[in-house]
Amino acid sequence: MTVLAGKPDRTGQVVDPPRARDRRRLDPLVVFQIYLVLLVFSPAIYVIKPLGAAGTPATVFGCLVLLLWIVGRLSSSRERIGLTPVHWMALAYAAAMVLSFVGGMLRPISAEEVSSSLRGLISLAGGMGVILYAADTMRTRAALSSLLRFAVLMGACLAAMGILQFFTGLDVVSLLHLPGLQANSDIGGLYVRAGFRRISGTATHSIEFAAVLGMLLPLAAHYALNAANRRWWAWAQFIVILGALPLTVARSGAIALLLGVLFALLIASTSQRLKFLLIAPIAALVFRLFVPGLYGAIGNLFADAGSDNSISGRTQDFQAVEAFFAQSPLIGRGLNTFIPSIYRTLDNQYLATAVEAGLIGALALIAFFGVPFVASLIAGAGARDRFVQTQAFAIAAGIACAAILAATFDFFSFPMAFGTLCLLVGAAGGAWRVHRAEAALAPGGRPTVAAPRPPALLPRWAIVLGAVAAGLAVFAACFLASRRAEGVFEARESVVPQVDPPKSTNAFDTRIDTDGLSVVLKYRMDGQQVHDELAAAGVDYYAVAVGSGSLAPYTDVLGYGDLMQLAARGATVDQAKEKLITLRTTLQQQLDALQGPATNPDLHIRLEDSFSSIEVFSVPVSRTSAIAGGAVLGGFVAALAALLLAVPRQRPTRPAPKKKGAAFRLTSVWENG
C-alpha cells in the first residue's frame, strides 16, 4: 500500500493518473467491489458449512482482506502512512471483544457457546479487515468516491430485488444459491404483515434490509443532488432505494426513510428544496395509488406500538439483561455466547453487547459508532468544496442511521448490515485522510509535504522492549487465569406434576394430565423470592424448564406440556446432586402452596420423578481457547503499546519544492505522526 504519486488539478485536488499507478499492486477498489458483490448477491443463509453462520462468502473474504492489510502494513516499512482515529477505535473495539472472548472461555461454558464464540471471532476479523483496509487505501477523493458510488449501486440492486419481491412474490434467495454453499438456517424468504409482503431482498430479514438501505440512502442523496453528469442515473438509484424502504412494512424502514429524507433536505440547495416540496406530494400520491393501504399499515405500526408484542418483548428484555450484566459487569459473559435459541433474542445491539462484553464492550460499541461519526463530521466541516463536504456528511449520516437502528435489533448478528456498517466506518477513515491531506495544502495552492520523520522520544530498543513486555504481561495474566479456572458439574432431572393414580402396572398411562400447571410453576420458580430462598440454601445456580424449553436462566425459549426439567450446578458430583434435590423440594413446596390445604388426599398433585434418574454432566472451561485468545489480546496490547511509545519529538513540515510539471508525493502531517 504505497502513497501514490499525483498532480493537483485547478482546485488543488490530487488526481492519480492511470499511468502513475503501480500495475503490479492489487487495486483496492477491485477488492471492495468483490466484497460488496458477495455481500449483496450471496444470501447470508448460504454458508461454508464447517464455519457455520460465520461462513458467508463476504465474511470469509473480509478475513482475507484483513490478512491483506497486515501484509500491506508490514511491507510498507519505508513509508509512513500513519493511523487515523478510526484505526485506534477499531483496534480498541477488537481488543475489548477479544477480552470478552477470553473471559467467556474462563467460565463454565457449553460446547455450543464455545463454537458460537469462535464464529464471533471470525465475524469480528472480517469486519476489522474491511475497516482497516478501507481506512488505509481510500486516501484520495477519487478512490473514496469510486468506492461509495459502487456501494450505492449495490444498494440500488438490493432495493430493486426487494421491489421485485413485493410485486411478484419471487424468492430471489433460492435463485442465488452459489455452488458449494449450504443453507445454515431456514430464516429468510417472504413474510406477510398487515396483508403486505415484507421484502428482504437477499438480506436475512426485512429489518436488516431496511438497515442496509438506510445506511446507503444518505450517500445516494448526496450523489443525486451533486451529480455533474448522468444525473438521471444517480437519481434513479436514489429513488429506487427510497421507494423500497416503505415496502419493508417495518418501523425500521420508516425511520431509515425519514432520516434519509431529512439529510437530503439539509444538504440540498434552496432551489432543490423547492423542487422537492413540489414533487414530494405528487410522488406520495402515485405511490399510494400503486400500493393502496400501505401508508395506513405503517402508521398503525407506530400507533399500536404500545400493544405490539414485538415492543413489549423488547421492554421485557431489560430485566433479564440486568441479571446477566450483574454476573460479569466489566467484561461480560463472552463474545457471541448469548445464543437466542438458549437464552432469548435481544432486539437491541447495545443490550446484547452489554451482556456479552460488559461495560468495557458497551463503551467500545459507543466508540465504534461515535468515533467515525465525529471523524466524518470534522472531515466534512474542513472540506474546501461542497462535493467532498456533503460526501463526508453522508458517511456520518449513514453511521448515525446504523447507531439508531442498532437499538431496534441485534445489528451485528446480521452479516449484510454489519458488513455495510464496517465499510462506512472504513470510509470515514478515508474521509479523514482526504481531509488531512487537503488541509496540508499551503495557501498559495502549493502543497506541504512532511519532513523526514523525527526520532522518537525513546530509542527503538526501548520501544520494542516495552511493547513486548506489555504483550507478555497480558498473555501471562490470561494464562494464569486459565490455569486457575475450574469447571462445574450440572445435575439434571425430569419430573411431572400429577395426581396419584390408582394402582396400575404403568403409572404413566393412568395418570391425570396437568397441562398448564408446569408453566405456572416455572414462573413461580423464576421469581425473585424463590431465587433468594434457594440462594440462602446454597443453590446459587439453577434452572427450570417446561417440556423442550431451554434450561438457561432468564430465558424466553419456553416449551409446553406437563413435563418439567430441573438443573443445578455444583463443584462436585455429589454437591450438584444435593443442590438438585433441594431444588426439587422447593418446587414441591411451591406446588403445595398453589393447592392449599389438602381436602382430598386422593386428588393431591405431587411431583413424579420415577420416569428418569438424576444425570450429572461436566461443564468445563475452555482453557485452550482462553490461552489462544490471550495470545491475540497480548498482540493487540503490544501493538498499541508500541504506537504509544513511538512518540516523535516534533512534527516539522516544510514547503514542497516548486517544480513545474513534476509529480509530488503528498503525505499529511497526521499520516507522519
Blueprint of the fold:
Layout: E1 7-8, E2 14-15, H1 28-41, E3 46-47, H2 57-75, H3 85-105, H4 111-137, H5 141-168, H6 172-175, E4 182-183, E5 191-193, E6 196-198, H7 206-225, H8 231-244, H9 251-267, H10 270-290, H11 294-303, H12 309-327, H13 349-381, H14 386-405, H15 415-439, E7 448-450, H16 460-484, E8 488-499, H17 507-510, H18 517-525, H19 528-536, E9 542-546, E10 564-570, H20 573-595, E11 605-608, E12 615-619, H21 623-645, E13 653-655
Helix pairs in contact: 1-2, 1-5, 2-4, 3-4, 3-13, 3-21, 4-15, 5-7, 5-8, 5-15, 7-8, 7-9, 7-14, 7-15, 9-14, 12-13, 13-14, 13-15, 14-15, 16-21
Which features characterize this protein?
alpha+beta, five-stranded antiparallel β-sheet, two-stranded antiparallel sheet, 21 helices, disordered C terminus, 673 residues
